[in-house]
Design a protein that fits this description.
Two copies of one chain form a homodimer. Chain A has 350 residues and is α/β, with parallel strands linked by helices. The first copy, chain A, is built from eleven helices and 16 strands. Chain A has a five-stranded mixed β-barrel with strand order 5-8-6-7-9. A four-stranded mixed β-sheet of chain A has the order 11-13-15-16. Strand 14 of chain A pairs parallel with strand 16 of chain B, so a sheet runs across the interface.
């Protein structure tokens, strides 16, 4: 899944070049490419399905030239994760009704790739054998208030347990209790299941969505698929898969993993996951000279030189035609800022 | 005079486009053009001599298309104000030995133009009649520590007094005493004199400089002037006219004026002289959205949008390939910063 707009990283992430397409760590590979490289250890390229917004088709073909054009599903409108996953499921089931799937965002960071691969292999074995929806739960390392949590129940297999509850983002006090209890894991948004299991669950818990796709049962995988989607996809409700299915279904399991994960959902998360210089500044592959400045994150493109004095714990993000300077503690404000910018300048700076 | 490099305004002022060539106030006219417009009220265009570094010849001809090419004196190297003024004096004297001159920097702000014109007319009358070096002293409005001061002595004519002493930049306490005394005026660096008077003074107080130019007495105003300057100008000592002549001569007078002057020598000076929005931010003709931010100065080119939260009394200067964020209180550090930048990146960002 790589159709999101990444507005929490504005202006470094822009509508025309969202976060997942950016080489965030200056490694030469974008987050999307890093995700692709990772799953290629598990899945042959011809079985990798990329779902994105149609506006990003050129970016996907540029960044993932090895993915066949027919494997890139182009959403005509933004409808959150449930319709995205439903389409991919129907598309995959048309090619192989017995298929198992891993569903993953393309803008996460995973640092311990071999542990990731081992965990996914273990999870696939689990979902191949049963009608189960498996989500990956990350062992929490701090009382993070920016993530949803999963409370685990009965153990079933190695590292795999029943899910007791899904919890929305907690406040700090509750997050501390969660972490100390050992019963709560971060909700990663990475899922494993058989196409059959998720289709069944969609019919049961998100019937309107499933019925919309059922109308095209015999077009998926054919030349008619694109026209069908153009007509029916915009009619789908905009809803997340968590809300539509996972929080309602009874056959939900969690695999508890610990492979160095971050959703890179916030500037703070990027800061935490980036190498720091001796003044604890993170300089995203850019030329920075600092005086009396610590704990900042600099996200600046190309050869630009940034000289800063007297800033502590700020975000300094320069995207050519937009510059943002904002305390990291106020990063929640960025969505509001983006709204304000749109109010004043329309889409010019989005 | 418009050959300076304006490094105190780096990176808004750059080696390839220094301060005097920038439209600082978004009025459509650069500081140089504003200076030219001002003197045109007093002096016909054919008598305006522009002295600049040869690297700025294209900028001068672009910004002052009405100034004849032969009136633009191109310095082959930077030698401070005394050699610059000496050359202009010899050049003017060759055209008219009886000429009177106003010598003015091109990067100052003068807000009350009619008072300026009246003062210059009054000053010209004074220097036409006698062997006098007249400097303009600005009535101080605050205990500024960034300016030199002139202590006045005996009154001679309307608003014109003998100079008692020139004083270097004082500390704050001394500056307060100066301002309260009523005897001290800011040294503006604007001078009036006859070509004959300044030539005499150069011979008496800066003989090495005068003798260098005497070698070319019969080339000024001819086709040979350029070649002579190429050969002899670099041999001149690098010295200011204040230090070389004004602080030594006995026939120095000051005209006390009050025409709304700033040398725009610092970001603070620019801040003080610029219109502020309701949050006391100065936005140099750029798109700025601020949250919880006051007292800042934004100097950003073109259509760039700057969004800032939680900054108080900072300079935010973006020059395309360089961004500077620095507390106004630390603006003295900018010269050091420019040195550091040169050490690390050579001339790339100067």
């Amino acid at each position: 899944m790589c159709g999101g707009i990444g507005s929490r990283f504005w202006p470094y992430s822009r509508a025309h070049l969202p976060k997942q397409f950016i080489d965030f760590f200056g490694t030469g590979r974008s987050l999307l490419q890093m995700t692709y490289d990772r799953v290629l250890e598990l899945i042959p390229s011809e079985n990798v399905i990329v779902v994105t917004n149609e506006q990003y088709a050129p970016l996907v073909s540029e960044q993932l030239p090895d993915v066949r054009p027919e494997n890139v599903l182009l959403e005509p409108s933004r409808r959150n994760t449930a319709p995205c996953i439903a389409w991919a499921t129907y598309h995959i089931a048309a090619r192989d009704p017995e298929a198992c799937m891993i569903v993953t965002p393309s803008d996460h960071l995973i640092t311990r790739e071999q542990l990731f691969i081992d965990a996914i292999r273990n999870g696939f074995e689990f979902v191949e054998e049963r009608d189960a929806l498996l989500t990956l739960g990350i062992k929490p390392t701090r009382p993070e208030t920016g993530y949803g949590y999963i409370q685990v129940g009965e153990p079933v297999e190695k590292d795999i347990l029943k899910v007791k509850t899904f919890t929305e983002k907690p406040d700090l006090e509750l997050a501390r209790v969660f972490v100390e209890s050992g019963e709560f894991f971060w909700n990663s948004g990475i899922f494993l299941w058989s196409a059959r299991a998720i289709k069944d669950a969609l019919h049961r818990y998100a019937a309107d969505l499933a019925l919309e796709f059922d109308k095209g049962l015999n077009v998926f995988g054919t030349d008619g698929e694109r026209a069908f989607i153009e007509q029916h996809f915009p009619a789908c409700p905009s809803i997340s898969i968590d809300f539509a299915v996972m929080e309602k279904a009874g056959n939900v399991y969690v695999e508890c993993v610990n492979f160095g994960w971050s959703d890179l959902g916030t500037w703070s998360a990027l800061y935490d996951n980036s190498p720091k210089n001796r003044d604890a500044n993170v300089t995203q592959n850019c030329n920075v000279i600092t005086y009396n400045s610590t704990g900042n994150i600099f996200a600046v493109r190309d050869e630009k030189l940034v000289v800063v004095s007297g800033l502590k714990d700020y975000i300094i993000a320069d995207a050519g035609d937009v510059l943002l300077i904002c305390p990291q503690a106020e990063e929640q404000r960025i969505k509001q800022i983006v709204n304000d910018v749109q109010t004043r300048f329309d889409d010019k700076y989005l």
